[in-house]
Amino acid sequence: MLKSSRMRNRRVVSEKGNLSSYRSLIDKADLGVDTDSNWMITMSDVMSLLLIFFIMFFIMSRNTVKSEEIKTEEIVKTEMRGLGILPDSDAIDRRISDELNMGIMNLAMGEHITVSTTNSSVMITMKEKVAFNPAEADVLEVTEPVLETIAGIINRYPDFNVEIIGHTDNIPIKTSLYPSNWELSVARATSVLKYFINKQNIDPSRLSVRGNADQKPVAPNDTPENRARNRRVEIKLKKIEA
Question: Which tops the pLDDT comparison, 41 or 161?
Fold first, then answer.
C-alpha cells in the first residue's frame, strides 16, 4: 500500500512538472510573437517616415528647378532687351510717343495735340478746337491728317488696343441731337471710332469708346480758357496683356 501511494505521488509531481514546462513554452512563444509584432510596427514607422521624406524631397526639387527656370528666363529677357532684340514695354511706349510727336510736329499741330505715356499706355489728347465745331460731333477735315497718322501707328502696333474717350466742359447742352453733355461726349468719341474703322480699316475689335461728359476735367471750369482745355478727345493706346 505504501509503495503504491508513493508511486501515485510521484506521478502527480511528474504531471505537474510537465504542465509547468508546457506553460513555460507557451509563455515563451507568446513573448516571441509580441517581439515579432513590435519589430514589424517599428519597421512600418520607418518606411512611412522614409516615404514622407522622399515626397518632400521631390516637391522641393521641383520647386527649385522651376524657380531656376524662371530666373534664367528673366535673365535671358533682360539681356535681349539690352541688345535691342526684345524691347521692353517702356521702350515701345517711348517709340510710339516719339513717332506720334514727330507726325504732329510735321503737321504743325503741336499747340492743340499732346502725347504722354504712363502705365504701359500712350495717351493722345486733341483739343476741341481742332477736332469739332462747338456743340457738334462731326470730325473736322483739318483733323483727318492727324487721325490718319495715329491710325498708321495703331496698325503698326497690333499688340495695343485703343480706347477713345470724349470730354466736355460743365456748361449744360440741350439740343435735339444731344440732350446733355453725356450724349455729346459719346458721340464725339464714336465719330473718331467710325473714322478709324471706315477710312483706316482698323480692326473694330481693338476699339472702344467712352463718354465722360464733364466728370473728368483737367482744369477747373472757372474760365473760358480752362473750359476749352476740358473740351477734348483722348485716344489711349493700351498694351494688350498676355
Answer: 161
